[in-house]
Structure formats: structure tokens, C-alpha cells
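Run Catalase through structure prediction, thanks.
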Amino acid sequence: MKDNHDNENKKLQQLNEYKVNNDGTKMTTNQRVRISNDEESLKAGLRGPTLMEDFHFREKITHFDHERIPERVVHARGYAAHGEFELYESMSEYTRAHFLQKAGTKTPVFVRFSTVVGSSGSNDTARDVRGFAVKFYTEEGIFDLVGNNIPVFFIQDALKFPDIIHAVKPEPHNEIPQASSAHDTFWDFVANNQETAHMIMWIMSDRAIPKNFRMMEGFGVNTFRFVNASGQSKFVKFHWKPVLGVHSLIWDEAQKIGGADSDFQRRDLWETIDAGFYPEYEFGVQMLDPADEFKYDFDILDATKIWPEELIPVKKIGKLTLNRNVDNVFAETEQVAFHPGNVVTGIDFSNDPLLQGRLFSYLDTQLLRLGGPNFTEIPINRPLCPFHNNQRNGFSRQMINTGRVSYHKNSLANNTPATSTAAEGGYVHYPEKVEGRVIQGRSKSFDDFFSQARLFWNSMSPPEKQHILDAFSFELGKVESRSVRQQVVDMLAHIDYALATTLAERLAVNKPQNHQVNVTASSPALSQQNTVFVPQTLRTAIIIGNQFNAQELEQVMREFKRYGVRYQIIAETFEPVKAANGQTFEVDATFLTTSPVLYDALYVVGGTSTNQAKFNSDMTAFIRQVYQNYKPIGIATTGVPFFNATRAKASEGILFATANPNFSQQFIQNIAKQRFWDRDIYI
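Sure, done. The structure for Catalase is below.
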């Protein structure tokens, strides 16, 4: 266990070497000349021109002018945290990767979550793919698992990646809309590149608006290989399964949260880690023997296809825990460089044409963003283990290489650094036999665009299907071209004819012909209805005035703490609220400084206020919003009049404390359930 503990601390110690704390220090230039004046530049007379010889001014302004590096073309808006990965069981039967050999091995990780389309200043809750990138600092080097929260992608071949990004980004003539796919060029691309059909179903589903980073699934998307010590290979896909389950916002919430708190998801990650509620994800793998490569009715190398879990089960082999926030967002989150080509021995690539293109693109991007080939020397990108090679010089070189030799082979340095054999841990590519003519094209096995899109639709619950229909209606309703709207509806008829005809009516286009594919299968793993439901870390708003029952409130708060439910007391002002027995409680937020869409549940305590009419109005509006978002509501004895004033119905998910000795326990169960879809929300 001592070795594990040492390994966990190595990366932290490495990063600590670069940390600077300015507390109690004297100001200097970057060359350590002490500064006597940081208020006025050097001038020729008090009202004269500034002199170029003011080296402090030039250094300070020059550094400021270059503070911003080019933001990522995609995944620009990101947030990250440190953590560790612990292996459940040895995977030596399948791979010789060192960090997957011994149960209990812990590996430091850095994880960056992101949206794809928007700029770095865009909204957290936009409908979009979310990046889920994990950097493993293994003892053999860096392994980057660069994935998304959706297991498939828009395109099959990386050659088309610039096209999909150009299409989904703001339209170039007016730079509108930001962080949104609801515009003509995107849907024109979809209609004319129908390999997008499966991905579009995911994007229009609740998966594209996750509740937070802690409750979203992660996928490696591409097909990789495991290779063991004997040189035997298995195809593999990677999964991250959140311990708290997979949960999403609804569209009404997502839009309103964007206005109430555009940093909603990054704030959630920061605050939960800061409070000790560490996000956890189980690491799973789907493995397939090469002999079964052509066994299924989909091509296992096609990135627009999943491997259904009912056919190829996910084996959970470890757990990722995020337990430390970053110290500096720019130095770590912005400067971190992920690359799917960063693998360790025992993990190799497949011929997935999307992956093959990514192996070039990511490295090429980092060279531009981070100023040259030495971005690997930035602290957050440095491997845990030392590295040795003959690469030299370039912008921002930090290593000071000694000696006269920088080439291979050599005799002056006894041919060092020397290569390693496979037995010594040297990376050896899997010797796959490849033959065929040089050709531009794609395999016919990639031609089925609609079967898995239909499988996804079949797997959705009725509320999820309604959300997909509404999402298509919103997105296509923003498309100005009637021709594009018609083309998309015609395409969707291949997936589900009823969906397409309903959209045709909503969008005022022609009813499509029925070309629905004949797929009746479903995959329960694809529906969020079948996920885990637990109360831990969910946020409850307690709306309250004065003259309430303190004992009743304290009992509920004790249960919240017992089950890890977070809560905030919300009142008309920040003045402490006073119970009927004179006991006071501190207020965390007011109706003006928060919003009902920021919470997962509501506890209506009610009471009196100095401005009762305003208080009653704010209470009613808060309750109505939570009610209309299908969320659980608990009502204290003093809260009944306020709930009744909303004219909301005492329906599923509405729980009254009056004459209910089991109120607290039942309320916790309702909070865990999160949504009550059968509720009539039209009040």
C-alpha cells in the first residue's frame, strides 16, 4: 500500500513545485528585480511622455497582451478537477498496461468536462455534446482517454470533421447563434449527410442537457485494442458510469438556468468537491474477440454505432474519484492538452477511420494553441515518470538538456537514451495484418444509417420521446429554409414515421413517405429511466418566513444531512428567520438572488413576513416553477396555504407533513426519484 500512496502523491508534488503563493512577498519583475513603483510608468517629467526604457512597464504590458492563448476550436468551454483511479481487479489477462495489472493500484488523473460548440464564454446548459476527457498519469507515461457523454459521433470518417464543425458553429455571415445547433447550416448538413441520424437522436434527447457533470455518462466513442503480454488482442470500448446515476435537465430548466446562473455546471462541480461530496464514476470496458469482428449487424469500427450492452456487456474494472479542485483554471484547465494518441503499452488503436484522423488532429491542434512542441513540459501535461529522448529546443523549452549528444544511434553516450524491448516495457504496436488497394472510400458495412437510430428511439420512455419530439420542434422551428426543414423530416421518416409526420404538421411541411426501418429491438441501457436514483448531493430549496414550527424544520434538516441532501434556506431578506418558539435560522439566499430552477426539490415551510403580499407572491411563483418542472415538493404544516394558493394539484410527488409521521423519510424517497412525469403541470 505504501507504493500506491507514493504514486498518488507524485503528481501532486510535481505540480506543487510550480505553485507560487504571493502572500507576504515583495514584488519583482520576472527577472527578480524588486519593484519600487507599480502605480505610475516612467515619464519624462510628470506630464511628459512615457519612456521606452521603463522595463517594468514593458514587461507587465507585454505579458498582459499575451495572457490569452487561442481557445480550443471545439470544447472551448471546460472545467476540470483532479482525482484518482483505483483498479478493482487485475486485467493482465487482456492488457499489459501497468496501471491495470494489480487490484488496488491507484493512478492520479486529471479530468476535463466541456461543451463542444460554444465559445469559452458560452452557457453551461446549452443543448450540446459534453466532453469527458481523462488524463491518467501512469508510471509508464500518459494515457489520455478523450471521450464524450454520448457514445457515438456525427460522422464516420475524420475527413468530414471540419465540415460538421463549420456547420454547427455560428453562421459566418452574422456569427449567430452562439452555442446552439438550432440554425440552418447545421440541419442542412444533417439532411445531406445522413450518417448523422443516430447522433441526432442522442443530441435531441435529454442526454444533451445533463443535470451536471457528476451525473452524466462518459464514453471513449472510438474502438481501441487491449494487447496482453502474449501479444493477444481484444477490441475494446471504454465507459464511465456515474455512481449517482445518469440524470438530465429538461429544456425549460436549461434555458432558465442559463439566465439564472450561466456557470451552473462548473459551479456544481467546484462546490460539491469543495464540500467533500466527491464525484465517482465506475470504469467499464466492452471487449470483443477479433474472431467476432464481423459477428454483428453493425460494423464495430463505425463511430456512429454503439455496441449494445445487451449483446456485449460492460465489465466494470475500477472507479474514478474526483477529490481535488484545480488551483488555477488557466494553468491547469486551459493549458491541459489531451490527445487520443497518448497511450501506454498494452493499449493500441483500431482502424476506426474517425480515430485514425483524431490521432493526427489533436497533436496538430496543441502545437498551435500552446505555442510549439514543448507543451508537454507544462506542469499539468508532464507525465508522472521521467522522460528521455533526443528532442530539443523550440518555443518555451523548460528542460535544460546536458551533454553533447542529441541523436540516435551514437557511441559518444553509449547509445543512450536507448530503446526498450517489449519485455522491458517498450511499446510495440499490435501486428495486425493489413492488405488492400489504396483507395478513397468506405466499407459497405458502414452504410446502415438508421437501424441504431431506431433502436435508440425504441428504447426511450414516453417522457423521453416527448422531449425528443419537442427538441426537434424547437431546433427545426429555428431553421429559416423550408427546404431544409422538409429534408430533415423526410430523413426522420426512416427512423420513426409517427415522429416525422408529427414534426411535418408542426413545421408546416409536406407529410413524408413511410420509409421507417424494420427494427423492433430496444436497449434498456439507453434510457435514463433505468438509471440509479439516490438522494445524495441533490439540492433542496427551503422557502421560509417567520413563525414556523422549528421542531418540524429541524427534523427534516437532520434527515437531509443524514442522506447527503444539500439544502439552502431562502427567504425574503437575509435577516435570520424566526420560528414560533423564538429560535432563529440563518438565510442562505433570497428570492431575488436565486431561482427555483437551480434546485432539485422544494420544501415549503412558509410563514409570515414584514411585506406579506410580496412574500406570498414570491412563494407562489417559486412553488409553481418547481411544480411545472415535475420536481418533488414537501409541504410543512405552515406551508399548506401557500401551496393551495398556487392552485396546483395535490398529485404525485407532492407530500404534506400534516398528520404524516413518516414525512421526512417519504420526502427523501421523493427527492431521490427527482421527477414525477405523470403530474398535470398546467396550472
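The domain at 78-150+206-301+313-381 is CATH 2.40.180.10 (Catalase HpII,  Chain A, domain 1).
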